């Protein structure tokens, strides 16, 4: 049987207690029909993607949520996906020529883990090796656009596959990298992070990220990383 794909946009009553809202979000994450929950900025505060067997199943599910919806939600708009169109965008290939002890070393984009601003230079990390490159973050972000990188804030550019977890707490996002580094996500780059959570990468690839409740009520998003050959 073909299932209905449901997209629900919720606006919260910001007079409600923060603790109550966190419990409500955690409750939504436990619903078997819910596939993905995205916190957003703008007209709505939360976007939920889920599925139902039919309209009757959807109506019954909404009825079960009637009490918390009336307590925490001031506006809800629901759409049903009837058709999706996927666009194939292969990862951009290329390389940077990086300074090394005896000259220049050719490093492919997919080998770079992260780029960190270091004064007037950019420190490019490739595994256990790194070097200082005289360049700007803006130019490197443009150079690596479409190659599977995301800018976390003005000083950090990271390959998506190098992100181990995205942690959300108190409306702030933090990325934990595979080397254990914790990097705060700037508000100006939150939408890029949300696209990762939603299963989209800046290069058009597909990621499956499922938020799960943390012990303190925050959300941890675990990435299914796309492996690249080294």
Automatic annotation (TrEMBL):
Pfam families: AsnC_trans_reg (PF01037), LytTR (PF04397). It comes from Sphingomonas humi. This is HTH LytTR-type domain-containing protein. SMART domains: LytTR. InterPro entries: Dimeric_a/b-barrel, LytTR_DNA-bd_dom, Tscrpt_reg_AsnC/Lrp_C. Residues 98-199 form the HTH LytTR-type domain. Residues 200-230 are annotated as: Disordered.
């Amino acid at each position: 049987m073909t299932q209905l794909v449901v997209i629900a946009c919720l606006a919260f009553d910001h007079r409600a207690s923060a603790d109550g809202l966190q419990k409500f979000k955690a409750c939504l994450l436990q619903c078997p029909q819910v596939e993905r929950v995205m916190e957003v900025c703008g007209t709505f505060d939360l976007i939920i993607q889920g599925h139902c067997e039919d309209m009757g199943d959807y109506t019954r599910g909404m009825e079960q949520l009637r009490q918390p919806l009336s307590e925490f939600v001031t506006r809800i708009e629901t759409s049903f996906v009837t058709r999706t169109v996927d666009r194939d965008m292969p990862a951009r290939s290329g390389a940077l020529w990086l300074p090394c002890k005896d000259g220049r070393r050719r490093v492919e984009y997919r080998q770079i883990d992260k780029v960190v601003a270091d004064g007037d230079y950019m420190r490019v990390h490739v595994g256990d090796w790194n070097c200082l490159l005289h360049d700007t973050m803006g130019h490197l972000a443009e150079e690596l656009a479409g190659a599977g990188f995301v800018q976390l804030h003005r000083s950090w550019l990271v390959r998506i596959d190098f992100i181990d977890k995205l942690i959300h707490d108190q409306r702030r996002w933090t990325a934990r990298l595979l080397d254990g580094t914790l990097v705060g996500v700037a508000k100006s780059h939150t939408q890029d992070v949300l696209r990762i959570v939603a299963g989209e990468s800046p290069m058009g690839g597909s990621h499956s990220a499922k938020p799960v409740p943390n012990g303190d009520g925050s959300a941890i998003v675990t990435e299914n990383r796309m492996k690249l050959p080294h």
